[in-house]
Amino acid sequence: RPRTTIHTLLSLYKAHTPITMITASDFPSAHVADAAGMDMILVGDSLAMVTLGMDDTSEIGLDEMIVACRAVGRGVQGAFVVGDLPMGSYEISPTQALTSSIRLIKAGRVHAVKLEGGAPMAPTIRAITDAGIPVLAHIGLTPQKQHALGGFRVQGKSTSSALALLRDALAVQEAGAFGVVLEAVPAPVAELVTRKLAIPTIGIGAGAGCSGQVIVQADMLGNYPPGRYLPKFVKRYGDVWSESLQAIEAYGKEVKEGLYPAKEHTYPMKREEMAEFRR
Ligand code: KIV
Ligand code: NA
């Protein structure tokens, strides 16, 4: 498939064709997403939880993100790959953010970076985009700031917070972001913000009025242990955990019963060589 570039994304946006984005965290999750034709792949720091089993995203560092970004990059032929700047790698100063972004591009081999925050991050977004690195902003529910937000809650529900969200969206656009993720925002608010902007909005829990959608791959595939809490906006398109469970249980049973490996899974040896070996 041809390589998706920033121009491809802009054409989709102008044509009002919804942009498709999904997360990936390693080689297999990347190549399947790329084969499925996703326009964009996000190496989201949600991999801290869904791939590494951490409690939240604050634990993951830039080095671990780089390992994941490289693995994802090896599996992608066509999609535009965005890497998340993890908590602690960009908040201190625009210089710190630019240094981390350059590492994600050079070592992580991604095409763009994503960071959380609106108006207060504008100078940072400006510094990164001025260096020629495309930035995807992320506003609304910003999981890295969950403790300041008081947990994972819908953002922009009141008139004043909807206005603040719009101001954040305009600020990141003005600072040079090529797009903005809107997470957990009432659908009518996200739709209005989308109409006020001249860059694509990528929604997650923000309704169909956005310019595109993003979803966490493990969530939509059902590739997580039973009982995991899922936000309301996740639609489960698969049941990968149960399929894996069935396959591994079947393997275990067949090994116990001596049914696996069967003859077709073994290597033969010439009779004469074997006779010699026996002596
Ligand atoms: O880390 C992530 O997966 C994300 C998406 C949910 C937007 O930031
Ligand atoms: Na993220």
From TrEMBL:
EC numbers for this chain: 2.1.2.11
Domain of life the protein comes from: Eukaryota
GO biological process entries: pantothenate biosynthetic process
GO cellular component term of the entry, any: mitochondrion
Pathway assignment: Cofactor biosynthesis; (R)-pantothenate biosynthesis; (R)-pantoate from 3-methyl-2-oxobutanoate: step 1/2
Keywords, ordered alphabetically: Pantothenate biosynthesis, Transferase
Record's catalysed reaction(s): (6R)-5,10-methylene-5,6,7,8-tetrahydrofolate + 3-methyl-2-oxobutanoate + H2O = 2-dehydropantoate + (6S)-5,6,7,8-tetrahydrofolate
Top EC group: transferase
Main function: Catalyzes the reversible reaction in which hydroxymethyl group from 5,10-methylenetetrahydrofolate is transferred onto alpha-ketoisovalerate to form ketopantoate.
Family the UniProt entry places it in: Belongs to the PanB family.
Protein name as it appears in the record: 3-methyl-2-oxobutanoate hydroxymethyltransferase
